[in-house]
Amino acid sequence: MLGMAMVLVLAACGTTESAGTTPGAAPSETTIARIGTASTEAPPTIPTTEASDPTIEQQEMSTTVPSQPDSIAGLTSGETPVFTAIGDDEPFRVLPEKTILGTPTVVSIIGEFDGWVEALLPGRPNGQSGWIRAADVEVFTLEREVIVDLAERQLTVLSDGEEVFESQVAVGSEVSPTPTGVFFVTDAVRLTAPGGPWGPYAFGLSARSDVVTEFNGGDGIVGIHGTNQPWSIGEAASLGCVRLPNDVIEILWDIMAVGMKVTIVA
Q1: pTM of the entire structure?
Q2: What is the mean pLDDT of the chain?
């Protein structure tokens, strides 16, 4: 059921304190969308879907390639084998066709050579990379990237190295910190319970918590999302996720997309 899937995707997004909500409670409905090149235009209108019958809608892939793209991603085609080295006979990992929320699996492209691409992979261990046959992915570009500074508790969106947006955020607590490293957006979800613990929108990341290894059957997936605890912004208050005020996450919905690079620094 999609409601349970939402809990799993945001497994590391809980709170270290009770605030009048049931910990781990999932919204009854979600809508999944936003794969492709991010745009400053408003996202497409997406119908609300029943939890038992989710639908996927993709943004159009960009037909132009920025001269200096900030993020390069690859949309996989079906189950995708990943190899330790170019030309290996056996993969060390096979990526599923879709994420737990039903979004087609993407990877972050960091290199290419002779019919192969090197990619950052979602999941444990954080920062793992591998080689994928170029024929197994459709490469697309994005004009922005995200930096999260844990010390400053600040999220910044950059375009061609220039700051286009920033906001204060809440980050993981001392006992359950937000992991650092280079990651990417794996899911972008519109929630139909905007007053819930994740606000109106949530972005799942390839990052996994170093502390929360299992939560409601999930794998400690780290996300960027809204919150029903606005007083936590600027604090180290979550189980690892990055929280923003709900009016701010609405802005990010317009300028972030699946595949975008997210760097988290200490």
Answers
A1: 0.78
A2: 77
